[in-house]
Amino acid sequence: MRIPPPVVSCGEPAGVGPEVAAKAWDALRGELPFAWIGDPSHLPAGTPWDEIRAPAEAQAVAERALPVLFLPFERPAIPGVPQKSHAEAVIEAIRYGADLAASGAASALVTGPISKAALMSGAGFAFPGHTEFLAHLAGDVPVAMMLACSELRVVPATIHVALSEVPKVLTPARLEEVIRLTHAGLRRDFGITGPRLAVAGLNPHAGEDGRMGREEQDWISPLLLSLRAEGLSLTGPHPADTLFHAAARARYDAAIAMYHDQALIPIKTIDFAGGVNVTLGLPFIRTSPDHGTAFDIAGRNRADPTSMIAALRMASDMAARKARAPA
Fold first, then answer.
1. Are 112 and 204 within one domain?
2. Are both 157 and 128 inside the same structural domain?
3. Mean pLDDT per 10-residue run, the chain (327 residues)?
4. Residue-number span of the structural domain to which 249 is assigned
5. What is the CATH number of the domain that holds 111?
6. pTM metric for this prediction
């Protein structure tokens, strides 16, 4: 059975999302067709596009033009200047894409970068980011955010919270949930039958036997011991400063970090342009380029589409693996 193409939500039209989508189409064309959800007036000038009615029609169009699922916006985009009047349509593009992916009409949703501040001011957007909003759309399912490139997969146990709040949000239940979501995601989405996970400590030197914090001793180590007894391949808690060099990365399939920057600094150092954001736990496939709106270069033809192309390729690989899996 033919797998339908993925869809790409436009993201913030004043940012680089439309530009990297157009460049990704130009690079991939018929090799990996996709449908873009948005207002084609926001695409870079001269981008050839053709309106389609369903993602399945993208295959016939993609060689000559970017397939567009038309979603009108109230006003033209001004590069670098988000407009409150665009917020509702940006949210609708995400919702539309999620519905298509959940129904099977699209093989996956790849999301263009959004401005959370613009969505909050323009539409009262109550979510810290895409990950939490998509979890809500899927029925408030538990999710985790994975950042992936060819050399590293890392999952932060806490995401969009202030550093001062991390010790409150990072509970044994949350860490266990993230570990289980990561283990299941590596099996289902990446085809790794026996995932190896490495878990970072929360404190410097993983607490150094309680001298720099007691979370590792009091509950992180006992939790990992309990999960290992179930058969999960887990190591840690490791000092985070020794977990991401090349020799260490060879010993695991994914690392579990305790907070946002502990996870994102290593992957952006290793592969700043090619990292991909994957949401684990959703009933459909969602990936995203691992960069923001880049308002400072929007409209200047300087945006690098590498991460968008990587997100599309990863979504396509995951969809093919899902289609081959036994029912």
1. no
2. no
3. 92 97 96 97 97 97 98 95 96 98 98 95 92 95 96 95 93 98 96 97 92 93 97 97 97 97 96 94 96 95 96 96 80
4. 151-270
5. 3.40.718.10
6. 0.94
